Amino acid sequence: MQSQEIKSVNFPKRVLLLSVSTGEGHNSAARAIAEVLNQKNIDCEIIDSVSFKGKQSHSFITEGYNRIIRHAPMLFGLAYVLGAAYDNMRLPSPIKSYHSSYADKIYQYIKDGNFDCVVCTHLFSMHTATAIRKKYAPDLPCYGVITDYTAIPFYRGSQLDAYFVPDSRTRDMLIKKGIPSDKIIISGIPVSPKFSQDISKSRARELLNIGADKKVIVISAGGAGCGKLMELCKRLKAQIDGEYEVYVFTGKNTRLKAKIDKIAGENGVIRTLAFTSDIYLYIKAADVAMTKPGGLSSTEFATSGVPMILLKAIPGCETCNKRYFIKHNLATYCNSVKKAVKQTLNILADNSRSELIELADDKKVINAFAATDIVEYIIENNN
């Protein structure tokens, strides 16, 4: 395949968002940016970059990730530690080599689709985009978006026009990995503009037909599901009554939804919700939220201003996310289901968590408009 320069007029006309379905956060970040692009009448498309490696490889990576997260989270933590040690030795990156191997296929997709800009929300796709620039299209604008409050191993060797990061600590970590400081933009993690809409709790409940007198709890288990979620729902059911309503976001995990529905029974106190575009309304309607410390989901809750309890973290990225939210008084961390339920009921009886969130917001800890800022940066720096 011959190198061919990709040029644009009135940049950008079409944006290709490259994500990877290892957890739902990377896809959510891509959708948030796509939402802003569409608001600006810029055409875009989201694809899973690993799918270009082949169906077998895609299943191995995405399904393998989900199985490890559900059944052996400590193994993921060990892989994170070993990856960091390997990366620090500055040895050739197996991640870079593997995800550069199908760059030709994505480049062909870019040409066929007349895309003039690429935005990556996962490390894997950032290495693929780097290979595309090196081999085929050196002038193709490519950007990376980091969706956790840390920089995971193996960013070394990626070369994009800019990297959008959540905070100064992540910026410093990237600099140590060899990313030029002038290419690192502290933007925050992009979430849908819907989460920053000025919708009151009462209005959100009215739209969702939730009683104004109810004590509302929302629970997000993440894309792969939370291993202790069943126990959490059982304990909540045993300790709450009809004045409560609990909404559990199960996403696309149909097996998880069926199991929780069985626990909930027919009393209506605990209700599951499959993947819904109205998740922001449920969060705004809530008195308290419970979630794993995923970078994206936690940022969505913080942006909405709901008191947040972080459930037991998976070693690695989530540990760093947990530290960030606790440091800035945006969440309470509970490492057991028993403690999480107790803290939830305490918050419902005390408004102090809301006051802490308002204090954190005054310090501008979370940028609710990160998606807009990212899109505007890309437009301004290419026209």
Question: Would you list the SSEs in sequence order as H and E?
Answer: EHEHHHHEHEEHEHEHEHEHEHEHEHHH
Evaluate the radius of gyration: 21 Å
Mean pLDDT: 85
Distance between the termini: 29 Å
Question: Could you tell me the strand content as a percent range?
Answer: 5-15%
The biggest sheet amounts to:
6 strands, parallel
Uncertain segments are none
The helix/strand class is alpha/beta
Portion in helices: 40-55%
Strand segment count: 12
Please outline the helices and strands:
Elements: E1 14-19, H1 25-39, E2 43-48, H2 55-71, H3 73-88, H4 94-100, H5 103-112, E3 117-120, H6 123-135, E4 142-145, E5 162-165, H7 168-176, E6 184-186, H8 201-208, E7 215-220, H9 229-239, E8 244-251, H10 254-264, E9 270-274, H11 279-285, E10 288-291, H12 295-304, E11 308-310, H13 317-327, E12 332-333, H14 337-348, H15 352-362, H16 370-380
Parallel strand pairs: 1-2, 1-3, 3-4, 4-5, 5-6, 7-8, 7-10, 8-9, 10-11, 11-12
Helix pairs in contact: 1-16, 2-3, 4-6, 5-6, 8-11, 9-10, 9-14
Question: Which key phrases capture this entry?
Answer:
alpha/beta, 47% helix, 16 helices, 12 strands, 6-stranded parallel beta sheet, single chain, 383 residues
Verbal overview:
It is a single chain. The protein is an alpha/beta fold and 383 residues long. 47% of the residues lie in helices and 14% in strands. The protein contains 16 helices and twelve strands. A six-stranded parallel β-sheet has the order 2-1-3-4-5-6, with helices on both faces. Strands 9-8-7-10-11-12 form a six-stranded parallel β-sheet, with helices on both faces. It is elongated and about 60 Å long. The mean pLDDT is 85.
